[in-house]
Structure formats: C-alpha cells, structure tokens
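Listing S7. Sequence submitted for prediction.
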Amino acid sequence: MSLRTNPALLPAFMLLLAATPALAADDLAAGRAEFQNSCLACHGESGKGDGPLSKFLTVKVADLTQLSKNNNGQYPFLKVFQTIDGRAVVKTHGDGPMPIWGDRYTVQSGAAGAEPYKSYTSEAFVRARVLELTYYIQSLQQ
C-alpha cells in the first residue's frame, strides 16, 4: 500500500515527517551522552581537541569540528566510524593514538549484562554505540 494507491495515508505520513526532527534530537542525545562519557576528556566539551587531558598527551588531539572542512566539505562518516571503533586498524602498523572503543564496548556489551542492551549481541551493541557517537560528531561540524 502506498500514498499513490491510498491517499488516506497522507495525514499519517505527514505526521510521521513532522515527528522526525524530535526523533533525531533523541538520537543526538544518546550520542552526546556517549561523547561526554568517552571523548570529552581529550576532545573537550565542544570537540575542538581542548579537553582536560589533551595537554598531557604527546599526540595533538584532533579538532572534531573541522572534519568536514578538512575533507572537501564532506563529513567522512565511514572513516570516523572506523576510527572510533578501531578494530579495523592493521595492528602490525603500530598502535593508533586513540583508544580502540570497539574492544572496550564489546566488554560492556549485552553479553556482559549491560542495560538496556541485554537482548542484543555484542556486535550490535558495539555498532549502536559507535553509530551514536559518529552521528553526534557529525552534528559538531562547523
């Protein structure tokens, strides 16, 4: 059934579209919480790389607000996702400057009894947390 074959669905469709921004805000709230928990110490509240621990690191912390600007105006979604996850990095090339959150999130996954993700496999749990964070970082772009 589509809007073309059943025009009576149009009001429900319009209501769904009107509700979409509220859903997006909820999604960003989860990513914001994840950012504050996992990233703020190094990247800072605004993501500019000025977190309280940044001055103690030997590697300059990335300014996450400039990722799109530094990538010809396109947010490098997959690269950000893979950087956060970290499990795809070729280990023989040495350790990356950032912790591997994918491994850490696996330990905290539903298999370990974390709520509200108990019913998910550990991989779904990890991907959900990394996605929340990736979308939130996208919202920081200037």
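Caption to Listing S7: primary sequence and predicted structure tokens for the chain studied. Residues 1-5, 13-23 have pLDDT under 50 and may be disordered. The longest helix spans residues 10-38.
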